[in-house]
Design brief:
About 45% of the residues lie in helices and about 15% in strands. By secondary structure, it is of the alpha/beta class. It has 2 domains: about 1-175 and about 360-375, 3-Layer(aba) Sandwich (Rossmann fold); about 180-360, Glycogen Phosphorylase B (Rossmann fold, 3-Layer(aba) Sandwich), CATH 3.40.50.2000. Strands 3-2-1-4-5-6-7 form a 7-stranded parallel beta sheet, sandwiched between helices. Strands 10-9-8-11-12-13 form a 6-stranded parallel beta sheet, sandwiched between helices. Helix 3 packs across helix 4, helix 9 runs parallel beside helix 10 (about 245-250) and helix 11 (about 290-295) packs across helix 13 (about 340-360).
Length: about 375
């Protein structure tokens, strides 16, 4: 049984559904349980149907902190565990991880083996120091009710150890895996159609980005960087609370005619090929799925060296890395790619090959098979 806070558009939900589908292909009985998607976020629930993954929505499981709803979610999960009697309860994301592991404790004799995956974390960089200390304490407490903790990158694992969430012996790394051939398209025809849709002129250097326009992604830096790259067009796929701030800054820097906000995009995989390069300015990342997909489409990535990004982008080989907030350096890297089409082609080809080898669904499922077998003693 996989439990995740919500099946919104993002790497965590995508990896859970891809993993569940592969596990079903291997003969496992699988159920995905997910909570309510809040207003303003796009849903990925349709993918559960497309992948033929059994899915139950738990209305009381919500992103926002609520003692009443959180207790109701834990109790509902306890009931579901006792009814389904799974061998493994695999929780994902902070809220589902806490309520799910409490539910496992409450299940009594029906308690399954418990695995929790950190797809990233909110232990630093998201909230004030008081709340961060509170979240770290909660994670340490529920770690006692966990048989194995999984991180999606070496950097996330190192952070968990640094924050003393659990002893190193309890933490393992299983990298993401996706059906990248199905997820992305690098067809020249599709790329031309997408570029025409946003009125890209001949010679424009198109910089792509995708995600939620939230503080942790530092979207204002995207605009600042684009303003320093002459001849560039910045195309943003996604939405969020900082959209108006992005629009305002683009106007202030007099590049609003060079910034295109697409909003949420259902067919993101077909957009990557329309970009000459892909840019990430995040302050923290677990393992940036959009960077994986961009590289898989043959698009070089320029990104901040945040969290698990260096597990995806090979600096100087498939793209470039720069410190968080280093707007001038990011712009210089993009300018270099703008001026060297041959370098873009070389980086893109290397990225496409490496992403398929490094982030396959089969490899991810094999990793979790080993984790589950160790817990169940098989």
């Amino acid at each position: 049984m996989h439990v995740i806070a919500r099946l919104n558009v993002g790497g965590a939900a995508l990896s859970v559904l891809e993993l569940a589908a592969e596990q079903r292909r291997r003969g496992h009985t699988v159920l995905v349980v997910a909570g309510t998607i809040p207003p303003g976020e796009a849903s990925m629930e349709h993918l559960a149907r497309e992948l033929d993954v059994p899915y139950v929505r738990l209305p009381s499981l919500k992103r926002e902190l609520s003692p009443h709803d959180d207790l109701a979610a834990a109790w509902a999960l306890r009931k579901l565990i006792r009814h389904e009697r799974p061998d493994i309860l695999h929780t994902h994301t902070a809220k589902a991880g806490t309520t799910g592991r409490i539910a496992a404790l409450l299940a009594g004799r029906a308690r399954p083996g418990v695995v929790h995956t950190f797809h990233g974390h909110v232990l630093s960089g998201y909230f004030d120091s008081r709340r961060e200390r509170g979240f770290r304490l909660i994670e340490r407490l529920v770690a006692y009710a966990t048989d194995r903790i999984v991180a999606v990158s070496d950097q996330v694992r190192d952070d968990l150890i640094r924050f003393k969430v659990a002893p190193p012996s309890k933490i393992t790394v299983v990298q993401y895996g996706f059906d990248l051939d199905a997820r992305v398209s690098s067809s020249p025809k599709t790329a031309r159609e997408k570029r025409a849709k946003i009125n890209v002129a001949e010679g424009d250097f198109v910089i792509g980005w995708a995600g939620r326009l939230s503080e942790i992604k530092r979207p204002l830096d995207l605009v600042r960087v684009a303003a320093r790259v002459a001849g560039s067009r910045l195309v943003l796929a996604g939405d969020g609370e900082l959209r108006s701030a992005v629009e305002q800054l683009a106007t202030e820097l007099e590049i609003d005619d060079r910034v295109c906000l697409l909003g949420y995009v259902a067919d993101m995989g077909s957009w990557y090929g329309a970009f000459d390069t892909f840019l990430l300015t995040s302050a923290n990342e677990g393992a940036p799925v959009v960077a994986i997909e961009a590289l898989a489409a043959g698009v070089p990535v320029v990104a901040t060296d945040a969290g698990g990004t260096r597990n995806v982008v090979d600096d100087g080989e498939t793209g470039f890395l720069a410190p968080v907030g280093a707007v001038d350096e990011l712009a210089a890297k993009l300018t270099r790619l703008r001026d060297d089409p041959e370098l873009r082609t070389r980086f893109g080809a290397a990225g496409a090959e490496r992403m398929r080898a490094r982030f396959s669904t089969i490899r991810m499922a094999d990793g979790f098979d080993r984790v589950y077998s160790q817990i169940l003693g098989r």
